Amino acid sequence: MLGVDPTSVIDYALSTFVKSDSSTMLDVTPMTIQDHQREKAITKTLHEKLMTGGIDVLFQPIYDTSSKTFKKAEALARLYDPIYGPISPLEFIPIAERASLINLLSYSVIKTSLETLRCLEEHASTIETISINISGTQVGDISFPEHVVDLINMHGNDPGSLSFELTETVMVSHMQSLKDFASAFKAAGITLTLDDFGTGVSNIESVLSGLFETIKFDGNIFHDLTRNRTGSSAIRHLIALFKSLGIRTTIEGIETKEQKDSAIGAGADELQGYFLAMPMTKEDLLALMMPASPDDSKDEL
Description:
Layout: H1 6-19, H2 30-51, E1 56-64, E2 69-81, E3 85-87, H3 89-98, H4 102-122, E4 129-133, H5 136-139, H6 143-155, E5 162-167, H7 168-173, H8 175-188, E6 191-197, H9 204-207, E7 214-217, H10 219-225, H11 229-244, E8 248-251, H12 257-265, E9 270-271, H13 282-288, H14 296-299
Helix pairs in contact: 4-6
């Protein structure tokens, strides 16, 4: 094949043959070879990172509308590849799943989060909880909660200081296994958050199943709905319903003061977005949450 290294073709063919039925026809094109080489390089970078200190983690503070302080933060895994540069989580998370590295990746994020929580506690920070995203493959792994509890005990943290986020799509696809998964976490005092609410195909019965302590509204959908009176009314009633059942609500994607005011007016408990705080390193988070910082700067948000 012109323009393609024969060694790369053989490597791609062997890799694909192992993963598929032996009768599968291979579609070998320069693009498929390029994609294979990219995934192979990113997998190598992921593995090296996880074996030599862990994945990079940023934290985005989450604003509590009642106390007018940051009481939570979301942990965000980040990956930089020496060849391809910054890699989006939308790309490297599925690669981690295919390479059976997803649990190692999560454990790395959890360890960093637990260490950060201890530092925040030492600095008398108002942040009490860090939320971490999990994938569908982990929901089906009943050993995952056990390992999480072991990590928490090892670091001496309160189990309630961690919350795990999963999307509507994951919930719908793994509803039965999710119940066992959630029960294991609940028994340990760890909460679950439903992320990107409004983007999936969940029904109200699933959402109100008692599995989730917090519902995160997708920012784009929230902002679209609240542009008219009918949508705004529907959102306010839905948030009021969740609140009556003891479920907290978070609005994501807050990028302007108008969006912040709209979310507070709708009754949301928590807000997250660039207008309030950008994703930041552990060091920047600790600096932001230093007690010496004037509270007035947060009130002005």
